[in-house]
Structure formats: C-alpha cells, structure tokens
Amino acid sequence: MKSNSRLFYHLVAFIVVAIWGSTFVFTKLLLLNGLSPAQIFTLRFIIAYVLLLGYSMKGGVAKFRLFSSSWRDELLMIALGVTGGSIYFLTENSAMNYTTTTNTSLIVSLSPLIATALISIFYKAERLNRVRISGTLMAALGVVIVVLNGHFVLHLSPFGDSLAFSAALCWGFYSLLMIPANQKYDTVFITRKVFIYGLLSMIPYFMMNPVEAGIFISPSTFHPSLSILLNLLFLGCVASMLCFVAWNWVLKKLGAVVATNYVYFNPVTTILFAWAILSEQITLYFLLGTALILIGMYLADKRKK
After folding, report:
1. pLDDT score, position 56
2. Residue 222 φ then ψ, to 5°
3. Which H, E and C letters describe the chain, residue by residue?
4. Could you tell me if residue 190 is left (phi over 0), alpha (psi between -120 and 50 degrees) or otherwise beta?
5. Which of 94, 92, 86, 90 is nearest to 196 (CA)?
6. What phi and psi values does residue 73 have, to the nearest 5 degrees?
7. How many Cβ atoms are within 10 Å of 296's Cβ, its own excluded?
8. What is the distance between the alpha carbons of residues 37 and 94, in angstroms, rounded to a whole number?
9. Dist CA 38 CA 93 (whole Å)
10. Most CB contacts within 10 A, which of 16, 19, 125, 263?
C-alpha cells in the first residue's frame, strides 16, 4: 500500500510539472496580446486566490483561518509568497528580455541543484548519500543535454543570466521554506498565503511602473477577448490554484528534495508539448537527456536502507 501511495505522489508531481511546462504557450499568447509579465502574474494569482479563498470559507466564517499561529510563521508565509510568487516570476520573465530563452530555461531548470544544496545545509536528515547525489547530478546533466539539444554554445549575458539564476535561487529557497511550513500548517492554508503575499509584494513594483498598473486602476482600459479570458482562466485555475496546491502537498509527501527534482522535467514536458501541438522535431539529444533525467531521478529517490 505504501508503495502504491508513493507512486501516486510521483504521478501527481509529474502531472504538475507537465502542466507548468505547457504554460509557455498560454503565456506567450497573452504577451502577444499586450499584457506584460507582471500583469499576467497578477491576474492569474488574483483568479487563484479568489477561488481558493471561496474554497477555504466553505465551512463558514467561524472556521476560516486568516493568520498564522505566530508572527514568525506569518513572516515565513510572506517569504514563501515572495520566493515562490512575485520575485520568482518577475526575475524569470524579465530574464528573457536580456538573455536567450535557452539560457533562461537551462538556468531556471537547474533550481533543484540549488534546493538540494540549501536543504542539505539546513536539514541533516535530508542530506544525500552518494547514490542520491549521483542521481541528482545525472538528472541535471540530462537537463543540459535536453535544453542545448546538440548546440553546445551559450551566449552569455551577465545581467539576464543573473536574473535567471535569481529565479532558480528563489525556487530553491521556496522549497527550503516549505519544510517548516508543511510541518505546522495544511496545504490549502499555505497556498492561499503564497497567493496573497505574492500579490501584495507586487504593489511596490506597480508603484514604480504605474503604466502597467493601469488595467487594475482603470479596468475599462482592458478589453480582453474570449481567447485571452480562457488563457487567463487556465493559468489562474489550473496552473496556479490546482497546481500550487498539488505541488505543496507533494512537497509534504515526497520530501522537498525528491519533489523538487521533478523540476528537471520542465524542459522535457515543454518539448513534448511543442512536438504534439506544434509538430516540432524530437531529436536524439532529447531522448538521451530524458533517459538521463529518468535514471537520475530514480537514483535520487533511493533512500538509505
């Protein structure tokens, strides 16, 4: 029974990463229709928060929990909202304005290495043995092969690459901070706090960029088409609300190190989605890289007997 349950947790983690890997198409469409990365992030988190808030209040106002048990825990929730929300999305999306998509994808997809290092430093019980370290490094090598796809040339852009590394660092800290949060609070409460603090921490950005805040200050200037609304609903309801709840739940069940390793699958699912929808070619490098990721993740999940 335990084996079947663990297999289910792995399946959920893969589905979440697969959905996140497909969001580039929906985000790209919204960008082409004039929305900025900050506006897209804000709109999808507003949709997700409102839906999750409604779900949380289904038991009535009396049972609804607004704040954490202590101010230290509330600071932890703020940190989760910033690292897994506003700063992560801003740095990741902004990186592509200053460096190549390949560089951004490669650097951000290596965030499990950062997460593993951070968690190993702060949690002795989560430190890896040699087999699991080898597996993590093998999966990281697989990501490099998949993303570069035989073109082993990187066009360095210090500022843009630094932004992409900042996004990877944010996700690493998000994975680290989820460990104490999951020990005290339920998944829905944590996810709701991530959404609200992700939104609140965007206020300084919009104050410095009032033009981008225009659609929130004066909604009459925003005239979305049906396709834009459907894309926003998918990003808000599925990619944000459902996937963040599922991901935070999987972090609790599998452990932060094992679950975060699934981020290695992000470029794989993106390429598969492009192959299925856009008829892009599957190469030998993709197959080799994917095989290394699968073997590496199997080894990374091996625990000491």
Report:
1. 86
2. -105, 115
3. CHHHHHHHHHHHHHHHHHHHHHHHHHHHHHHHCCCCHHHHHHHHHHHHHHHHHHHHCCCCHHHCCCCCCCHHHHHHHHHHHHHHHHHHHHHHHHHCCCCCHHHHHHHHHCHHHHHHHHHHHHCHHHCCCHHHHHHHHHHHHHHHHHHHCCCCCCCCCHHHHHHHHHHHHHHHHHHHHHHHHHHHCCHHHHHHHHHHHHHHCCHHHHHHCCCCCHHHHCHHHCCCCHHHHHHHHHHHHHHHHHHHHHHHHHHHHHCHHHHHHHHHHHHHHHHHHHHHHHCCCCCHHHHHHHHHHHHHHHHHCCCCC
4. alpha
5. 86
6. -65, -35
7. 23
8. 8
9. 9
10. 263
Residue 58 pLDDT: 78
Task: Give the C-alpha separation, 183 to 147, whole Å.
Answer: 35
Which residues 6+ apart lie within 8 Å of 280 measured at CB? Answer: 271, 274
Contact 127, 285 (CB under 8 A): no
Contacts of 184 (CB under 8 A, 6+ apart): 68, 69, 73
Amino acid code (one letter) for 215: I
Record the tokens describing residue 227, joined without a space. Answer: 């396709």
Gap between the Cα atoms of 143 and 137, Å rounded: 10
Tokens of 8: 């289910």
